Automatic annotation (TrEMBL):
Pfam families in the cross-refs: Cytidylate_kin
Gene for this chain: cmk
Protein name as annotated: Cytidylate kinase
A GO cellular-component term linked to this record: cytosol
EC code(s) of this entry: 2.7.4.25
Amino acid sequence: MGGVRPAPGFVIAIDGPAGAGKSTTARLAASELGFRHLDTGAMYRAVTLKIIESGTNPRDTRALSRLLAQTRVRVEWPRTRGGTGRVLLDGREVGRLIRTPTVNESVSVVAAIPLVRRAMVKEQRRAASRQRVVCEGRDIGSVVFPRAQLKVYLDCDIEERTRRRERELRGLGTRQTRTAVRAGLALRDQIDSTRTTSPLRQVKDAVVIDTTDLTIAEQVGVVCDLARRRGVSA
């Protein structure tokens, strides 16, 4: 990967645990500010889907390396200003396929693999090059764009995150018990925060926003206000 590149254009980096509202906040803040939205989590989900579909053992380094060499995860930006980049897996749209419980259960394990992270970070930097972009994930402010002009860490109580994830799953036509959803989030928190490569952590220069009692509109408003204070205009 080489050395860390300076953050291109203007980067708003949003990190935080699963269910804190990162994706929705990033997408809506990008829309309001006229930025592009890079859903980095969708990229790891796409790789996870490829591993599941191919039957590859992610712990088999050689097999995984061969699979990654044959895999293309790319971000396709809309032609208009702003909007969310579509994540394409080998040229195909996989939007709904990457949001299933099967992918949810495996994505943290896959995302912790150094081979996968190196490949995805390279593509994330390529996609954001010379863009005004909002990116969200687990290591955006710490690893992917450590020189981002604005870093935000969204936090949230696990009970509220459980309720949000339940609503998301219902919207996808999937039902799980609240106990199962909560256990899945707790396990993901543990994996994300203790992995050796790029663990989830709050960097010192990030602005922390507790979203537990905030509406989506309120947390989007906070992020946009922070960006404007740093000179961003729509």
